[in-house]
Amino acid sequence: MNSISAKEINERLTAGETLNIIDVREVAEVKSGRIPSSIHLPLGFLEFRMNELDKKKEYIVVCQSGGRSIQAVKFLDYQGFNVTNMNGGMLAWEGKID
C-alpha cells in the first residue's frame, strides 16, 4: 500500500501542486476543519459514491488518525483506483485547514 506523510502533502500543496485528496471522516469531524480542496466522502458512503471518482487520477486518502483511510485505500485499490494513504491522518496535519 502506498503511503505519504502529512508533511510531504503540505509541502506539495504549498508549492502549488494540485492534489486529489479524499477525506473519509464523518461530517462532525470535518466541521473542525479539513485540508483545503479536499473532497469529503465519508467512509460509510465510499462504496456508493466511488462512481464520482476518476480511475485515471491519483487520490490521497485522509481520516482522523489513519485507520479508516487505510480501509478506504484497500477498498479503492481493489476497485482499480490509484490511491495513497496519508500517514497519521489529520492528527499529523500541520498545514492550513478550511
Key traits:
4 helices; globular; 5 strands; alpha/beta; Oxidized Rhodanese, domain 1; 98 residues; 30% helix; 5-stranded parallel β-sheet
Largest beta-sheet details: 5 strands, parallel
Extended strand count: 5
CATH topology: Oxidized Rhodanese, domain 1
Principal-axes shape call: globular
> Per DSSP, what share of the residues sits in E-state strands of 2 or more residues?
15-25%
CATH superfamily: Rhodanese-like domain
Query: What is the quaternary state of this protein?
Result: single chain
Mean pLDDT: 96
Strand order of the largest sheet: 1-5-4-2-3
Poorly predicted regions: none
Structural class: alpha/beta
Number of domains: 1
Q: State the distance separating the first and last CA atoms.
A: 28 Å
The SSE order reads: EHEHEHEHE
Rg estimate, integer Å: 12 Å
Number of continuous helical runs: 4
Q: At the first level of CATH, what is the class?
A: Alpha Beta
CATH structural architecture: 3-Layer(aba) Sandwich
Walk me through what this model shows.
The protein has 98 residues and is of the alpha/beta class. It has a single domain, classed as Rhodanese-like domain (Oxidized Rhodanese, domain 1), CATH 3.40.250.10. It is 30% helix and 20% strand. It contains four helices and five strands; from the N terminus they run βαβαβαβαβ. Strand 4, helix 4 and strand 5 form a beta-alpha-beta unit. The mean pLDDT is 96.
